[in-house]
């Protein structure tokens, strides 16, 4: 197609009116970061790891619970389907950004819908990323300090090692994690500076996966495993509507659109962004499928919303407690290293929303530090008051995340300001908008109905 064969060099063009340019602009590249280093562009592998780290976050912990609802076959098929849809929407963003000579997602939205489009995207990123980062902190609190759910206490790692003390209570543990880990890692002004921590975070996710797979194999040959359900149990209308509650979780699991332009703009060869995206999506879909499969095989219908909480029980194999701790520690460390990757576009977009006419955020240490500290404080407070990752995923996934991942890219195609969309593009865009709106509306209704029944009909 002519659109696909257009000159790729346009991706390097700097648009002065692009209000949501990433922190690193072309002039920043020429001068180095604060004049102290020389940056010639990010490598292919570094870009893949940064994008994969954006994708593989807390969503992986909720995916085994989606298998419990959907069954193995529809569950795996849905993970693959959402990966393909994500690839399609990112291709839309990249292609139409090139056509409109825009260097950021926000710039593309402004090109298509004016300033209101840019503001809508910035608000969506604000809601989505704050929600996701709150989920990260909730999981870290659950893993390290434990949680109480339905009257049952799930012990954290520090509880198990040292017993209950003042310094391993949830709030203090999260405060120390914030000050000692998150604060330093969020101080980098260039996303490529996080490529090594991103590589380590992906490796830790793989370690988590291999340990879980090993536990499943050992149990299979020693005690046996219960046969998992291959398809969902749909017995009435309520159980049918419940199937749609997994959609926001799966949407959240693949959201990375807000970082694609940031990563492309720092690439040594920006024309390689498509293979970067597809390599990252292939890696992440494989990890998602295997984690969902092994997590559900291991715990069956007892799989919790956050599968890490299942690893505080006796799994019935030699050295089970050691393996439990290894699983929880590897993923807790992974989330700590994912946090700054998701935080990066959040800070860029909140700056663009609050200070649209200000110079680059990289040039103002006061503004950079103030926004960073304020956002971390909000996330810390939210993590101490929101009880469940499923609640946070449902809210952000059914609202802001679905807009970022599906509705906004499809709307850009349908708007087609430069008259370059094909009939196939528009048909796919319509399909994705209808699917996203329908599925998430049902998910919100189902969750609200379940909450109403729990609160007013069967109070705890």
Structural class: mainly alpha
Distance separating the two termini? 60 Å
Number of helices: 17
Q: What is the number of independent domains?
A: 1
Percentage beta strand: under 5%
Task: Characterise this structure.
The structure is a single chain. This protein has 17 helices and two strands. By secondary structure, the protein is an all-alpha fold. A two-stranded antiparallel sheet has the order 1-2. A hairpin with a 2-residue loop joins strand 1 and strand 2. Helix 5 packs antiparallel against helix 6 (115-145) and helix 8 crosses helix 14 (320-354). The longest helix is centred in the C-terminal third of the chain and has 35 residues, at 320-354. One of its GO terms (cellular component) is organelle membrane. It comes from Microthlaspi erraticum.
Essential attributes:
460 residues; mainly alpha; Amino acid/polyamine transporter I; two-stranded antiparallel sheet; 17 helices; 1% strand; globular; disordered N terminus; disordered C terminus; transmembrane; Amino acid transporter transmembrane domain-containing protein
